[in-house]
């Protein structure tokens, strides 16, 4: 895979992880462990972080830079408004979000090809409790100066009352990670639902926890969204 990445001309990737795989009792599924053992000769007892170590090392040998990306809390598809929509929920509070990131930053602080941290993927409304109706969010991401009219309407109809400030979270976690690795780039993704351009984010610069020299704003473009929703 790394050879293919290099052959295609890429020199940087996002390496996703979920918080669940960082738990002490997390294991690699037996069928995948068997394949890794057969193809790569790796021990079948590797933990998910052990596999990450080997992937990061293999990328580094080929000169490929890595942005670690917290893609969700659970190993599942993240497109729907499920519990992966926010950086915290039942069982994974904001303390876990902070602790997991600090643990990974310390783990890879001497890996020269790990150049940054993409704090959380595609932030969007989410239920707080797992296995509940994902269409009835209990957590709404907010950013200063950006009114979430969808949340206002749902609240008026008796729906969600909770909100959670992405601005506060990224400043706290970003500052903590830069204490561990002052040269790291901190990637802050925009809230994707409802979609806004980057003006509300730029209006808050400079961020108190992340110097401009370390800050990257990120957005994802899809075919069903027009360019006016992006930049």
Structure description:
The chain is built from 7 helices and 7 strands. With 231 residues, the chain is of the alpha/beta class. It has helices spanning 2-7, 30-40, 48-61, 94-107, 149-156, 166-180, 199-202; strands spanning 12-18, 65-72, 114-118, 141-142, 164-165, 185-189, 215-218. Strands 1-2-3-6-7 form a 5-stranded parallel β-sheet, with helices on one face. The two termini are 32 Å apart. The radius of gyration is 18 Å and the shape is globular. The relative contact order is 0.12. Helix 4 (94-107) packs parallel to helix 6.
Features:
31% helix; 5-stranded parallel sheet; two-stranded parallel ribbon; 231 residues; alpha/beta; 7 helices
Cα-atom radius of gyration? 18 Å
User: Could you say which overall geometry the principal axes of the C-alpha atoms support?
Assistant: globular
Major beta sheet, specifics?
5 strands, parallel
Task: Return the string of H and E elements.
Answer: HEHHEHEEHEHEHE
Strand content: 5-15%
Helical stretch tally: 7
Helix percentage range: 25-40%
Output mean pLDDT: 85
Structural class: alpha/beta
- Find the count of extended strands (DSSP E, 2+ residues): 7
Give the low-pLDDT segments. none
State the separation between the terminal residues, measured CA to CA. Answer: 32 Å
With strands numbered from the N-terminus, the spatial order across the biggest sheet is: 1-2-3-6-7
